Amino acid sequence: AQSVTQLGSHVSVSEGALVLLRCNYSSSVPPYLFWYVQYPNQGLQLLLKYTSAATLVKGINGFEAEFKKSETSFHLTKPSAHMRDAAEYFCAVSDLNNNDMRFGAGTRLTVKP
Amino acid sequence: NAGVTQTPKFQVLKTGQSMTLQCAQDMNHNSMYWYRQDPGMGLRLIYYSASEGTTDKGEVPNGYNVSRLNKREFSLRLESAAPSQTSVYFCASSVSGTGGSPLHFGNGTRLTVT
Fold it and tell me: CB of A25 within 8 A of CB of A17?
């Protein structure tokens, strides 16, 4: 089965600094990859998804992610962090005709003023 | 737009008690899912329903049962609750099977089993 590994359970950045959240995937077939964000006491919301159309994917709130097959990575970035970006972020993978989306353990992002 | 609605929001059970978590979606989605979220473990799939009338086990189905009541509703039942089932439960839906189709989540049910 496919899986994802998120490197770093906690990441702390200063407001205005670059955000980099790391995700590596394992899949025997071309994967579909997702980033979700979870704010306190809420469900997960889709940030962006990769479905093989383009390797650089732009999402909501200024986030983007790049699919790198050679590195089996799908890292999430944002050039300039804002206080409202503080949340938990989950990377997820699925494949075609598979109803089992697998999630990483999550990375909690803290933004310092 | 309500999206995915879960009830109740919070629940405390004693070991051995039973309960049903309710989920309804108003987006005309075909597929529905139940996940549990535990600290440091991300979300794990309990059961899913690819379409009305079908249900299948996910990664951690033991101790749970589900019912796809109709296209809108998908319930999760704990027949005899155990402390290991203390968790936050999320219902989700998608247009179809998850290949490329993102999940839409409810706000969760926080369950404590004492």
Answer: no
The 10s digit of each residue's pLDDT in B56-78 is 999 999 999 999 999 999 999 99
Q: Which residue of chain A is at minimal alpha-carbon distance from B98?
A: A99
**Of the partner residues B33, B43, B102, the one whose CB lies closest to the CB of residue A49:** B102
User: Cα separations (Å) of B73 from A93, A113, B11, B19, B33?
Assistant: 25, 43, 20, 16, 11
Picking from B5, B54, B9, B8, the residue whose alpha carbon sits closest to that of residue B27 is B5
Q: Is B44 at the interface with chain A, CB within 8 A?
A: yes
When pLDDT is cut at 50, 70 and 90, the band that residue A5 belongs to is very high
Residues of A in contact with B34 (CB under 8 A): none
- The per-residue pLDDT of chain B, averaged, comes to 94
Across the interface, whether the CB atoms of A103 and B44 are under 8 A apart is answered yes
pLDDT at B96: 84
> Is the Cβ pair B100, A32 closer than 8 Å?
yes
Residue A2 CB coordination number (10 Å): 19
Which is nearest to A102 in space by CA: B43, B41, B82? B43
Phi-psi region of A61 (alpha: psi -120 to 50; beta: other; left: phi over 0): left
Do A100 and B92 count as a contact with CB atoms less than 8 A apart?
A: no
Nearest beta carbon to residue B97 from set A49, A99, A106: A99
